[in-house]
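Data availability (excerpt). The following record was deposited with the supplementary files.
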Amino acid sequence: MCTILSRGPQRTPIAEIPKVEGLYSLVGAGRHQHHANLAKAKLTVNELHRVLGHVSQTAVLDAVQKGLVTGVELDTTSKPEFCDVCVKAKSV
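Predicted structure:
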């Protein structure tokens, strides 16, 4: 189970994603359509950045270090990398 917690002292769960047979199962909003993502033993900062929808790599690292995201093992030796997708999305 991957649990995403809110900030602050309460740290209440804001999302829980079940792990079924090695896969994280997500339900699409309003569509009742299931998606599955591979559950990997360790993720790099860049991989978790992509999995979480291109959230800032610094914010991803900070959230994992503060325990706001649980159920995900982060490769602590990995460093944030340049993301072509983010650059293209921000271009005018």
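Summary of structural features: Residues 2-90 form one domain.
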